[in-house]
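Hi R.,

As promised on Friday, here is the backbone we talked about, encoded as C-alpha cells. Could you run it through your design pipeline when you get a chance and send me back a sequence?
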C-alpha cells in the first residue's frame, strides 16, 4: 500500500512539473526609450553680419614726399591725428575642426581720422580679409588672426594755394590684425579687434605741373563689434537612448 501511494505521488509531481514547463515565460517589459540631448557644442559655421565702432589714429611713420611749398619750406604731411571709425561688416565662417575656424570678412568704415594743416585724412576705408581662428579654451570663444586687402579714400589738404584746396584719391594696400570673439548666445557674438592698414596712391603736385609723389598712410584701429550669425548651431540632435 505504501509503495502504491508513493508511486502515485511521484506521478502527480511529474505531471505538474511538465505542465509548468509548458506555460509561457513571463518577463518584465523593456523600459521605454528616453530622449536626451547631447552636451551643447557650439559651431561657428555660416554667414554673419554686424557692425563695429572704435578709435583710429595715423601712424607716425607715414611715407611720402612733400607736395606743397610755402615760404617757410616744404611742409611734412605726417599728421598722427586720431578719430572715430564706425561701420558694418559681413562674413562667413567654416568650422574646420572642433578647435579651428577659417573665414572671410568684408567691412566698410566711415572715419574721422586725420586732420591738421596740410594733413592727411581717411574719410572712409574698407577691407576684404581672411580670418583663421582657434578655440582652445571654450567652443564659444575664438581667438583669431586676420589679414588681406585694404582700400579707402586718402585726402590731402587744405593747401595754402588755392586757399582751402584739397586733393584725394582711392588708395589701395593691405590690412593685418587680430582679435577675440565670443558667442554669448547661439546667434549673437561680440568681438574686440585690432587692425593696421597701410594704403597709398600717387598724387599729382597741385603746384608743379606734371610732377607727382607717392603718398602712403598707415592707420591703427581698435574697435568693438557685434555680429548676428544666421547659421550657428547650439547643440546636437535629439536621439533615442535605451
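Update: got your reply. Pasting your designed sequence below so it's all in one thread:
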Amino acid at each position: 500500500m505504501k509503495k502504491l501511494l508513493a508511486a502515485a505521488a511521484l506521478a502527480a509531481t511529474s505531471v505538474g512539473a511538465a505542465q509548468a514547463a509548458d506555460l509561457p515565460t513571463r518577463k518584465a517589459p523593456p523600459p521605454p526609450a528616453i530622449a536626451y540631448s547631447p552636451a551643447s557644442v557650439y559651431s561657428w559655421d555660416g554667414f554673419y553680419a554686424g557692425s563695429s565702432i572704435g578709435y583710429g589714429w595715423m601712424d607716425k611713420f607715414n611715407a611720402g614726399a612733400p607736395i606743397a611749398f610755402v615760404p617757410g619750406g616744404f611742409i611734412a604731411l605726417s599728421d598722427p591725428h586720431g578719430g572715430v571709425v564706425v561701420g558694418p561688416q559681413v562674413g562667413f565662417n567654416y568650422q574646420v575642426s572642433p578647435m579651428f575656424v577659417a573665414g572671410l570678412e568684408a567691412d566698410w568704415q566711415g572715419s574721422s581720422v586725420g586732420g591738421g594743416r596740410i594733413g592727411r585724412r581717411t574719410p572712409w576705408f574698407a577691407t576684404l580679409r581672411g580670418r583663421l581662428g582657434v578655440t582652445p579654451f571654450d567652443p564659444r570663444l575664438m581667438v583669431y588672426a586676420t589679414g588681406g586687402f585694404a582700400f579707402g579714400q586718402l585726402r590731402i589738404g587744405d593747401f595754402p594755394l588755392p586757399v582751402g584746396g584739397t586733393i584725394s584719391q582711392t588708395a589701395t594696400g593691405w590690412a593685418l590684425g587680430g582679435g577675440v570673439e565670443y558667442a554669448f548666445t547661439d546667434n549673437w557674438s561680440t568681438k574686440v579687434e585690432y587692425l593696421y592698414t597701410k594704403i597709398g596712391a600717387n598724387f599729382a603736385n597741385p603746384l608743379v605741373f606734371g610732377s607727382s609723389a607717392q603718398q602712403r598712410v598707415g592707420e591703427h584701429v581698435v574697435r568693438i563689434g557685434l555680429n548676428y550669425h544666421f547659421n550657428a548651431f547650439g547643440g546636437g540632435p535629439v536621439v533615442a537612448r535605451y
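One thing I noticed while checking it: Helices lie at 2-22.

Thanks again,
M.
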